[in-house]
Amino acid sequence: MSSRVASILEKAKKLHFAGIGGSGMFPLVEILLSEGYEISGSDINEGGIIDSERGMGIAVTIGHDAKNVEGADALVVSAALLDGNPEVARANELGIPIIERAELLGYVTSRYDKSICISGTHGKTTATSMLASILLLGGYDPAAVIGGKLPLIDGYGRPGASDYMVCEACEFKDTFLELSSYYSVILNVDADHLDYFGSLENLEASFHKFGELAKKAVIANGDDENTLDALEGLDNDVILVGEGDNCDYRITDVERYDKAFYKFCLRHGGEEIGRFELKVPGRHNVHNAAVAAVCAHLEGVSADDIQKGFDSFGGAGRRFEVLGKFSGVTIADDYAHHPLELKVTLDAAQNMGYNRIIAVFQPFTFSRTKALLDDFAEALSAADIVVMTEIMGSREINTYGISTADLAAKIEGSVWFDSFDQVADHCLDIAQPGDLILTMGCGDIYKAADTMVERCKSN
To answer: Which of 24, 147, 306, 340 could form a Cys-Cys staple with 125, CB 3.0–4.6 A?
Structure first.
């Protein structure tokens, strides 16, 4: 597909982005704006990303309207907007080429000789952020496309001026198969997006195809059984990272040095590559960090510069992001939306010394909630108090006969509400000094956290 996109962009001067406020669109906007394209966009809601884009001189319209695309040489859209969007319909009427975001990202990665594409059911935003930080502080000047906001660059990506690109690679609907990859990184493979893949075996087959894209090597989690299954029969060079004896790069001497923060040693053969300390909580981040360190080490980054990257990284946006502390109550937000992600996030929170954890969860998609109902209940039960919203259906219609009430029935003492205002009222009413209120989910549950913060600030 990249050749089609290349042909379009060679002739284009003005690009219109429908859904320009999305975190996946923003770094592509930044990269193409830096190359001299005239950019405009539209979205349905205001937001911080749109504020940043307007600050860059980009005209952004709130609301999708057919007239927005008139005068553009190409329209860029996310897959979710392809059906029934008035801007898409008008572009088709006018013969304006339409580029789907995944295609555009694939084209962008193809222009960098060393695109490091990081995939996995869990942890890819964190690992991508870590590696981007390491390469940036190491003087490698990488381009980056990240699924969360990286504080070091105050953004979701950057153009870069070298052969290096660090790119978060999402498996949903096989979008990562559009990428051009120097290193294909697989952090883990877990049952998710089964509404699309249908089975874990099909998901593993897609990760296998992603591994086949690697021009140099596949760097993968040697401790994860599903990842090893996905790699079976792969002809490419494979570099395994993990704690097991089967791994090429071994994680050893893992220690908790401060509450939920860890340090570890990374070895290759008989050689110690380095000893590293992390500034993000949770043991699961040891594996994310080790993979980032291996990618950097293979490209000649010193252990000291790798540690500089880790020192600079206290978490990406919406990854255990502490939003404030008010009257002794800490309010934080996390993107966790799969049972395993909930588990590791709550495990980390439990080691941080809070009196109680008030977990605020927004289930995302009916299919995932139905398929993993018992797993969600088990993971959330680790919190002291569980507060939930109704399921955010996103792209789905509820043909599954599932609701939050079904999940709440499996979690003793849990409650759920229809609105974020109700969630905020309840959480602030019950919170006591020393408590953590932790919102979790990949939808818009962060708005409930923002509401709580604003109410605390105004009191």
So the answer is: 147
